[in-house]
Amino acid sequence: MSTPAPAPLPVLRAGLADGLTVAGRNLLKLRHQPGQIVATFAFPLVSVVLFGYVFGSAIPIPGGGNYREYLMPGLFVMGTVFGLVGSLTVIAKDNGLGVMDRFRSMPMARSAVPFGQTASDLVVAAGSLAVMAGCGLLFGWRAHHGVGATLGAFGLLLLLQYAVSWVGVFLGSLVRNEETAARIAPLVMPVTMISNVFVPTEGMPTVLRVIADWNPVSAAAVACRELFGNPGLPTGDLAWPIEHPVLATVGWSALLLVIFVPLAVRRFRTAGL
Amino acid sequence: MGTPDAAVVAEGVHKRFGATTALAGLDLTVPAGTVYGLLGPNGAGKSTAVRVFATLTRPDEGRAVVAGHDVVREADAVRRRIGLAGQHAAVDEDLTGRENLRIFGRLFHLGGPRARRRADELLERFGLADAGDRLVRTYSGGMRRRLDLLSSLLVSPAVLFLDEPTTGLDPRSRNEIWDAVRDLVADGTTVLLTTQYLDEADQLAQHIAVIDTGRVIATGSPDRLKARIGGRIDVVLADGADLGEAARVLSAIAAEGTRPDADPERRLVSVPVGADSVTLPDVVRRLDQEGVPAVDVGLRRPTLDEVFLTLTGRPAEPADPPGTATPALAGEVSR
């Protein structure tokens, strides 16, 4: 009956193996929660109907074009940023239940939790993007610039998603439980709204327009519109991130990663000490 | 440390959280292969002590050695040798019991197949085999606690920390956990158990440390601790007129520095005695010799509650305060 502790694994191998285990655990959990999967995938459908047909009926696109074609890239980005809520909630829940304490009392790599979480987030995000794209196709959205540009756009979205997921993991490690996480989550809403996701920024008051133009969400949406060949690309005197949307999105993502990966890893190593 | 057979040694461990002092110079030696009870009211520092030993929190001062390794400098070595089961069931609600164990087993680096086998083995042994494929969300409190305990046994730990393992459980579940703990000790695991249930310490632990405001205020076996305040002999006399004579007789056996109390209304003479210093037949004989007829003679052994009251000057917290705020919270606030 006695099971002695195995010899310690080399650090890197342990970190990788543990990270994969944690990622597998998160995906397994999702499988047991069909409700959550439905909710994840219902979001894009509801958004397209709500924003595309309800709001879209009254929003003209500068330069003409179908509003839903304008909207879809924005919704892709919005869904991506909302991924933050998922990682925030999972980590906060583990904290609240004491699962995190068990992890930390075990001889596993402490960085496995944030790396595993962000990895499983990426898998979920890819699935959710695929469903969203399917919905978009149903409602008349198309990618016009070929396979390369299309894959480029989705790659960009996944990069942003990965970066945002690290922000969620870090925030999740700061809050004590799921309830607190649930109270923070709605704050993501304005981040996605003050942008060009739903309407062009040209008509906004100056202060709001500047914020919206420098919002990473806007740059990502413009980058996707450009790569998919969707209408509503801004013209005239543009803010830098809007003029160089792909570069700006990569830059914003890199910046978030540079800040939040070390913060999160440090946090998991030293929390409670 | 000079004590090779000690599973846990703490020397002058201090831990502060902001303005709150959780541990104020904790000294502790837990002999290997025993169940050691850390007994104290809410907020006494029990959980913080366990968190230090389990490498979850770092002491501000002093040092602690668990299974021969320093908890700060050799935290990884400690983590390979301990198990931790908390008062909050640290298992994943959204997975089945079996999946929980398999995943924790992998994280202990048992490897997939071995983690699988070990999970099945433990579920079988601790009566959770049938519930193993159900989501933990559907488990009763007692089942969760048992699964939590199993999660800390995947790799046979040298030292197992149980932080209030039965708080909030019904008596039946509590008994199940107790049986599991006794089983483990039979396997040679050292168990450090924190509890605010006096009967739990009495039932399981060979040694107890009473802890209050972050330090140990008394140690010993449950019996020794009770002996420290001894017992009380109550004699009910046939005739109230004998009270003075009875008190004279009984003062000969009174514990040092104490005198018999007489209660004329109940014709009762009561005297504190040192533990094991007197037997009932002895008392009866002395009274007989002096011609003091008694209708009832009784020896009252102290409960651990009384021990606690004597040691700390205040009663232990009620075991299961129904309808009050969560004890843990109330404890934090009151400190």
From TrEMBL, chain A:
Family listed: Belongs to the ABC-2 integral membrane protein family.
Biological process annotations from GO: response to antibiotic
Magnesium keyword on record: no
Cellular localization per UniProt: Cell membrane; Membrane
Main location: membrane
Membrane topology summary: Multi-pass membrane protein
GO CC list: ATP-binding cassette (ABC) transporter complex
One Pfam family of this chain: ABC2_membrane
Residue intervals of the ABC transmembrane type-2 domain: 35-271
Residue ranges crossing the lipid bilayer per the database entry: 37-59, 71-92, 113-139, 151-174, 246-265
Entries under PROSITE patterns matching the protein: ABC_TM2
Organism: Prauserella shujinwangii
Signal peptide as annotated in the record: none
Name the UniProt record assigns to this protein: Transport permease protein
Lineage: superkingdom: Bacteria
Automatic annotation (TrEMBL), chain B:
Record domain ABC transporter: where: 8-238
Membrane topology summary: Peripheral membrane protein
SUPFAM superfamilies per the UniProt record, alphabetical: P-loop containing nucleoside triphosphate hydrolases
GO BP terms in the entry: daunorubicin transport; doxorubicin transport; response to antibiotic
GO MF: ATP binding; ATP hydrolysis activity
Subcellular location as annotated: Cell membrane
Keywords noted in UniProt: Antibiotic resistance, ATP-binding, Cell membrane, Membrane, Nucleotide-binding, Translocase, Transport
Keyword Translocase: yes
Keyword ATP-binding: yes
Gene Ontology CC terms: plasma membrane
Segments for region (Disordered): 313-335
Organism domain of life: Bacteria
Family to which this protein belongs: Belongs to the ABC transporter superfamily. Drug exporter-1 (DrugE1) (TC 3.A.1.105) family.
PANTHER family with a match to the protein in the record: ABC TRANSPORTER ATP-BINDING PROTEIN, DOXORUBICIN RESISTANCE ATP-BINDING PROTEIN DRRA
NCBIfam families documented for this protein: drrA
Protein name: ABC-2 type transport system ATP-binding protein
